[in-house]
Specification:
By secondary structure, the protein is mainly α. 58% of the residues lie in helices and 4% in strands. The chain has helices at residues 25-48, 54-74, 88-104, 118-141, 148-171, and strands at 12-15, 18-21. The protein has a two-stranded antiparallel ribbon. α1 (25-48) runs antiparallel to α2, α3 (88-104) runs parallel beside α5 and α4 (118-141) runs antiparallel to α5. The longest helix has 24 residues, at 25-48. The protein is elongated. It starts with 11 loop residues before the first strand and ends in a 20-residue tail after the last helix. Its EC number is 2.5.1.17. This is Corrinoid adenosyltransferase.
Length: 191
């Protein structure tokens, strides 16, 4: 099988149930999720190369699988009556990981700048790409029904990347850099 098909040379692509323009809002939504997945792959590779971050790398690999599920679920021209791949369990698992990563990082009271270690910086790239993917899914939802588990997952996932970035910095002994012009905007954790 050849990698190129030539069927998209005129600016159209296939979705499950037909063909659409390559700049269709649906293609933009799942294409942005695909872009996010590439950033996550880089973060996973970076984490795998660092001692003590193997569990984080494994989480990111699971997230990559779930992002493919999200893209697949969005690729249906008409998802009604279709068995979708992403379930609510995926967002619930993210919440557990978020809580664990949050507990592993020092408390914050101010906004922080994206960065610190290379792994954390890449996770912040993932966070911002995830927010963009979520915005594209919201735009799509104005035209067609978007599966609720996908919307919830993308919303939770950006929180995951924030918590994971902070935990990665903590595990690597790198201090988050506070935004110096920030007021204290986060409540301190209960002791």
């Amino acid at each position: 099988m050849k990698l190129y098909t030539r069927t998209g040379d005129g600016g159209q692509t296939s979705v499950k149930g037909g063909r659409v323009r390559k700049d269709d809002v649906r293609v933009e939504a799942y294409g942005t999720i695909d872009e996010l997945n590439s950033f996550v792959g880089l973060a996973a590779a970076m984490a795998a190369a660092r001692e003590g971050l193997g569990a984080l790398s494994a989480e990111l690999l699971e997230i990559q699988q779930e992002l493919f599920d999200c893209g697949s679920d969005l690729a249906f021209r008409d998802p009604a009556g279709r068995e979708l791949k992403l379930t609510a369990d995926a967002a619930a698992r993210l919440e557990g990981w978020i809580d664990a990563h949050d507990a592993a990082a020092p408390a914050i009271t101010r906004f922080i700048l994206p960065g610190g270690s290379d792994v954390a910086a890449q996770l912040h790239v993932c966070r911002t790409a995830c927010r963009r993917a979520e915005r594209r899914a919201v735009t799509l939802s104005a035209e067609v029904e978007v599966p609720a588990p996908v919307m919830v997952y993308l919303n939770r996932l950006s929180d995951y990347f924030f918590a994971a970035a902070r935990a990665a910095n903590a595990m690597l002994g790198v201090t988050d850099t506070e935004y110096v012009r920030s007021a204290e905007v986060f409540r301190k954790r209960d002791s």
